[in-house]
Design a protein that fits this description.
Layout (H helix, E strand, L loop, with lengths): L6 E5 L3 H12 L5 E6 L14 H4 L12 H6 L2 E5 L2 E5 L4 E4 L4 E3 L2 E4 L3 E3 L12 E3 L3 H7 L8 E5 L3 H12 L3 E6 L11 H13 L3 E4 L3 E6 L5 E5 L4 E4 L1 E4 L3 E3 L2 H5 L8 E2 L11 E3 L4 E4 L6 E2 L4 H15 L11 E6 L2 E7 L6 E8 L2 E7 L5 E9 L2 H15 L5 H5 L5 H4 L1
Parallel strand pairs: 1-2, 1-7, 2-3, 7-19, 9-16, 10-11, 10-16, 11-12, 18-20
Antiparallel strand pairs: 4-5, 5-6, 8-17, 13-14, 14-15, 20-21, 22-23, 23-26, 24-25, 25-26
Helix pairs in contact: 1-8
Keywords: Dioxygenase, FAD, Flavoprotein, Oxidoreductase
Organism: Paraburkholderia unamae
Pfam family, one: Reductase_C
């Protein structure tokens, strides 16, 4: 087979797919790279969608993973199409237009679909989700000063959208079905601080509330009917209740899935020559025999590179520490490791309005750290906390709790 016909195929042209394509070239692959995605856009980063893009601080072009010229120079073939079927035995992809693509190795970077509300009125034009650049393009113009915005969901996306809407001068109400914000993603004390921060910035937060229906008014605004019997008025409703991993292509092809595509430490699926990475991949934890799935920038960035090397015949193991952050107003929230594995939590108050919760397992080893505070000095402190969790060391709890003991000295 001529070198020009040897194909590395990537399904999903987002952050993971784009970074994997770039890495394939950097690693020396000279054959074809087919980067297939349903969106017309070149690969872009998602974190700015709920923040800088909505506030107008960044343009859609500035969200791009690389410049259009870089993709052209690398000879990456961006194919805007859906994939109808995958045949791992024949190593073929059937595209939406009926064309067949033969691949040498395949990366599934299909990400996820925004969860939708299954209630009356959820399909109204004023009820939107935020997952893509096109979603952001629809939401942005609606965040005009004085607009009534209802955000459904008190997770990271919902809170970031609420903060962006307030920065644009909108009147914002956030409703969350749970008893607190951020579910079990962070300690209750940090969730309470995030709650207070949003209320100080003018967001009306309603807990233990869920929408029952949306009803359109004559002026095209919406009534948001809550299960509690309350009714809210909204110009726009933005639903941020998470994603469902897009594993349907893999499932139909007989590849093992379990709320995502199951992979080993090399990010290889149960099908020979097929890998998966990013939001859709369920991979082995570095802290035990269980598997996890991560919807983070860091996960996308690092898994893409490992998957690309292994597509070329490597057996690199993915051992990165889970880590993510969320910017809200002038504060930042970070989580490193897997705090849920902790048997004991140690709270450190480093000053300047910040706090860090360290989680230790039953052997006293660090398995996670969650922090919240004004961006700046807190970010530097959390960088050290991440390094401590990365090492998984058993550290004296009193030293962790004592702000007089520098974290750097514990390294």
């Amino acid at each position: 087979m001529p070198a020009t016909e040897r194909v590395m195929a990537i399904v999903g042209a987002g952050h993971v797919g784009g970074r994997a394509a770039q890495t394939l070239r950097e690693a020396g692959w000279r054959g074809r790279i087919a980067l297939i995605g349903a969106e017309p856009h070149l690969p872009y980063e998602r974190p700015p969608l709920s923040k800088a893009l909505l506030t107008g601080e960044r343009s859609a072009q500035q969200c791009g993973l690389r410049s259009p010229e870089a993709w052209r120079d690398d000879g990456v073939e961006h194919i805007v199409a859906t994939v109808r079927a995958l045949d791992p035995a024949r190593r073929t992809l059937e595209l939406g237009d009926g064309a067949t693509l033969h691949y040498e190795a395949l990366l599934l970077a299909t990400g996820g679909h925004a969860r939708r509300l299954a209630i009356p009125g959820a399909s109204h034009a004023g009820v939107l989700c935020l997952r893509t650049l096109d979603d952001a393009a629809m939401i942005g113009p609606r965040l005009a000063a004085g607009a009534h915005i209802v955000v459904v969901g008190g997770g990271f996306i919902g809170l970031e959208v609420a903060a962006s809407a307030r920065a644009r001068g909108c009147d914002v109400t956030l409703i969350e079905g749970g008893a607190r914000l951020l579910g079990r993603a962070v300690p209750a004390a940090i969730a309470a601080r995030a709650h207070a921060l949003h209320e100080r910035n003018g967001v009306r937060v309603l807990l233990k509330r869920a929408p029952q229906a949306f009803e359109k008014r004559a002026d095209s605004t919406l009534d948001v009917m809550l299960e509690s019997g309350e009714t809210l008025h909204a110009d726009t409703v933005i639903v941020g209740i998470g994603i469902e991993p897009a594993d349907e292509l893999a499932r139909a092809a007989g590849i093992e899935v379990a709320r995502g595509i199951l992979v080993d430490e090399a990010l290889a699926t149960s099908a020979r020559g097929v890998f998966a990475a990013g939001d859709v991949a369920v991979f082995p934890s570095r802290f035990g025999a269980h598997r996890i799935r991560q919807e983070t920038w860091h996960n996308a960035e690092t898994q893409a590179r490992v998957a690309a090397h292994n597509m070329l015949g490597g057996r690199d193991a993915y051992r990165e520490l889970p880590w993510f952050w969320s910017d809200q107003y002038d504060h930042q929230l970070q989580v490193a490791g897997e705090p849920a594995l902790g048997a004991r939590s140690i709270v450190r108050i480093p000053g300047g309005g910040a706090e860090i919760h360290f989680d230790l397992d039953e052997q006293g080893r660090l398995v996670g750290a969650s922090g919240f505070g004004p961006t700046g000095a807190f970010a530097r402190e959390m960088k050290l906390a991440r390094m401590l969790v990365e090492r998984g060391a058993a550290i004296d709890p009193q030293s962790l709790a004592n702000p007089e003991v520098k974290l750097k000295s514990l390294l």
